[in-house]
Amino acid sequence: MIKNEKNTFKLFLMAGVVILISILVYGMAQVWVFLSVSRANAAVFLEVKDTPDIYTPKLVWLPDEPVERPMEDFTRDILKRDYIRALYQRNLAMLNGDTLLIQDYYTALGREKLKRSISKEKAIIKEHIELEHHLQLNYYSADGQIIGFLDKATTEAERVWNKEKQMLAYDTDTLNYQVIMILEDGYWRIHNMKRVEVAPDLPKVDSVVVDFTKAELLSKILNAKGINYYPQEAPFKDFWINYDSAQVEKDFALIKKLKFNSVRIFINYEQFGKGMVIPEMMERLHHLLDVAELNQVTVILTLFDFNSDFNLFNFPATDRHLETILTAFRHHPALIGYDLKNEPDIDYNYQDSTLVNQWLEFVIAKARSYDPVRPMTIGWSNADKALNFKDKLDFLSFHFYKSPKLLKEDLLFLKKNAPEKKVVVSEYGKSTYLSKIFPFGNSKNSLFKALLSVHTVLEDNHIPAYFWTLYDFKEVASDVAGKMPWQKNPQKFFGIIDVDGKPKDAMKIFEHKAATFKPSLIDRIPPFVLTYLFLGAVFVLIIIYFKKLKQFFIYLINTRFKGLKDFSKK
């Protein structure tokens, strides 16, 4: 009986050890995955969603030439839809060599011509899109079944790849086409599309009325005492979906009270509708800008947040997104500049940097065309990348979360390599997260010293900066920071106001009320050390009282088994 009890004890002990080892191995594996995860460069360029709703090139109707009958407005709308869809399917066929999907968008003659022009050889792959169309009607049959029009100054872009998915060429062009479409089974189908030479004769673009000079706006940026903003209850992807106008009004009043004069906010590309920007989201953004103006707080708008789609097929949606937002708010007095993309150098780790840079160059050019006055930058995660596109941007910006002693080096590096450019640190801060189990985080004393050191360097060098962030967050979604505790938890504790609404130690730095931090004895000791001391004490007690614990454990087993035996006898 005693032997069986010992074996049972050993069995439970071994099971516990196995479970503990399994947990540790799983944790280490997750850390390894987090540190090493990546995607093959350029492997994503064929990942084009097969839905025409994402394909939104610009289409403008020019004044009609004299025609047999005027075209109805609803016919124009249907024709526009079917023409864009037909070209989208043609471009997909050019990309993958499969002409099956063009069946519903071209007449029999149109399909045959198109099939002859699309090679099924996989040695060369063409990624082709249109960005802009200018249609001029020149024929509309009396029975309303045939339409002819010129597509003038069609702006096209194309990437050419080899079968190893290496880009061979990237080019843009402006062409003209004569197009004939026929109504079949309720759909307008392309019957013929021929390249022609015609004078563009496009309407002149009205010049933008200037409310502020670029120098005035840049001066406001360079005098910014800034902070990055999300509401405490709805950070990151929850902000615009759960937009709370009353909370935004309270928060901006608080920002003013804390004597910050500028905020940096983020526009979620997908939530705003990509190329078909959602009117309700525009209303929410308008409200935020109005509230900022009321509180005399300026705004830097960070665009394309959470967008990592640099396929050529995303360029038209990128264009429509920029056009809609920038033309709507380019006269708003609270808006002082644009951050065109948040930390695109991180995307270099997952996609070919050439694709990312082509998209960025496209965004810069388009943004300039829609708002030529407001200063523009790109918020890089590292200072060395801030030199990218430096000649096309109005000021340089980067984020700083490294050791404080490296900040001077980063600033000197930019001053040496781009002396003519002003620099903004658009994110900086320290997470106050302290793990109670693992050696993650630092003591309050070291955190305060690090943040004070960064703040001092910024002030001494007259560098405008935006602190990350106003609030600590109660929750951060797994798809933002990662699902593991060591990924999510630090992201919750960057604020200057904690989850209970109380100012944290960092507030003293901004208020210039403290140059040093006087921690208590407990503050000097990281929480995980206290946990290990406690566990160590428990372990020592277990060793000391091992025999008694063993006897107690055996007693419990005997009592349990005896009760089961007595029950079975009954």
Automatic annotation (TrEMBL):
Membrane-spanning ranges: 12-35, 525-546
Keyword Membrane: yes
Entries under InterPro entries matching the protein: GH (IPR017853), Glyco_hydro_5 (IPR001547), Glyco_hydro_5_CS (IPR018087)
Stated family: Belongs to the glycosyl hydrolase 5 (cellulase A) family.
Ranges for domain Glycoside hydrolase family: 235-471
Record key words, sorted: Glycosidase, Hydrolase, Membrane, Transmembrane, Transmembrane helix
Annotated organism of origin: Lacihabitans lacunae
Pfam families on file: Cellulase
UniProt entry tagged with the keyword Lipoprotein: no
The name this protein goes by in its record: Cellulase family glycosylhydrolase
